[in-house]
């Protein structure tokens, strides 16, 4: 393992640890003290379950779920890439289904359950997909990685649930084709082009024999 790899992995692990340890209420508590946003909008009360913890706060109704997570709850593991639904960096799981959190308003999800990369695992107890991304070098700069991992976990659940994709050839097929994996992950862009390694990580977690 090169020094670069150690540093890169260390940074990712540390970032996840810091994010996991951050209080879910920070700026959210401050927001509760006022009834209007900085731009004068009436604040809307909202309750979410984020990574298993209930949070109550008030938000400007124009706040996206992505900004609520990053700016109000300080869960910065979820990344903002394009901020308009084209890159997948902001992927989280909402009530068990993956979504682009930049494309939806937080106030639309009162009472919903959100899982972010911080809720999937911790540096001490990685989710199998997080571990597989490390094993298979499924990242380079790491910016897309939280979204890729949330999507990858969801894709395996979608396959297990028999939800077809555009590339599904046979729902009874035990091992999806590489084309199917790529199609299912096509909403997650990686500028570092780690795609083959991401698919390898997914196949590893799915229990497939590597070609
Ligand atoms: S930041 Fe949401 S899709 Fe790019
Ligand atoms: S690892 Fe750099 S954008 Fe995907």
Summarize the structure in words.
By secondary structure, this protein is α+β, with helices and mostly antiparallel strands. It folds into two domains: 44-120, Ubiquitin-like (UB roll) (Roll); 128-205, DNA polymerase, domain 1, CATH 1.10.150. The chain contains eight helices and five strands, in the order ααββαβββααααα. The chain has a five-stranded mixed sheet with strand order 2-1-5-3-4. The longest helix has 19 residues, at 3-21. Bound molecules: FE2/S2 (inorganic) cluster (2 copies). Residues 80-83, 85-90, 100, 102 line the site of one FE2/S2 (inorganic) cluster.
Name the features.
elongated, 211 residues, disordered N terminus, Ubiquitin-like (UB roll), alpha+beta, 37% helix, binds FE2/S2 (inorganic) cluster, 5-stranded mixed beta sheet, DNA polymerase, domain 1, 2 domains
